[in-house]
Amino acid sequence: MKYALFFLLYTLSIAGYGQDFKAHTFIRGNDTLPYRLLLPKDYKPGTEYPLIVVMHGAGERGNDNISQLKHGSKLFLNDSLRKAYPAIVIFPQCAKNTSWAVMEFNKDSVGWAGVKFNADIKPTIPSGLLHQLLDSLLASGSVDYRRLYVGGLSMGGMGTFDILARYPTRFAAAFPICGAGNESYAPRFAHSTALWIFHGADDNVVPVKFSRSYHDSLRVAGASVKYTEYPGIGHNSWDNAFAEPDLLAWLFSNKRK
């Protein structure tokens, strides 16, 4: 009973600030990707706007098309920021028991030592649908292809690195938060995508070494990359990242050539 009440209150709290994020579904064949879409305050059809994609973490997976708004969505509802940085924002939702990035596990290894990120094989179903959704949105005439931005937290941070490796020239900037990936892919997008990587120094869920390593590889590859590590912060470094006063200003300062 207590859990049911908590879940109800939690859902209502998200719905309260998610009203401007309209619920949509993207369907291809037998597969469905729920997503929420926020249009600019004074949206004008036929005008091309920047597009921001935010991928949630493992805890927000499902098919309710609301839980993915738990982290980060409030930032994009700020009236002054919406006026200063008009953009189309989408929060897709990954189904349970799936992920944004392809992760291969070595059963003989323990923990993260046995995980391999592979962006050279077929993407996961949610990731593949997201790629197709972006193609559809780009074809709508309302998205500026030079100003596509992507980011995500935890599992979504892993998805960010994955999508950059698969589409190395698509995004102008990216903000992976407490994520992980295969840094050998860094040279693919080092000269096409600016990055701002975030991680908590005391993260005991996704080790900070992943972000440190990817940052180092991107620098060696000649990328425009920023790295912010929060001392004393655990896995919820997204709270700090989404509170960065210059995040949107930095994001919008980047444009594909």
Strand order of the largest sheet: 1-2-4-3-7-8-9-10
CATH superfamily, called what? Alpha/Beta hydrolase fold, catalytic domain
Element pattern in H and E:
HEEEHHEEEHEHEHEHEHH
- C-alpha Rg, in Å? 17 Å
Separation of the first and last Cα atoms: 55 Å
Averaging pLDDT over every residue, what do you get? 92
Assign the CATH class: Alpha Beta
Low-confidence stretches: 1-15
Overview of this structure, please?
This protein has nine helices and ten strands. It has helices at residues 2-18, 73-77, 79-84, 125-139, 155-166, 186-189, 209-220, 238-241, 247-252, and strands at residues 22-28, 31-38, 49-55, 88-92, 103-105, 115-117, 143-153, 173-177, 194-200, 225-230. It has 257 residues and is an alpha/beta fold. The strands form two sheets. It has an eight-stranded mixed β-sheet with strand order 1-2-4-3-7-8-9-10. Residues 1-15 have low confidence and may be disordered. It is globular. The chain has one domain (2-252): Rossmann fold (3-Layer(aba) Sandwich), CATH 3.40.50.1820. Helix 6 links the parallel strand 8 (173-177) and strand 9.
Labels describing this entry:
single chain; about 260 residues; Rossmann fold; eight-stranded mixed sheet; about 25% strand
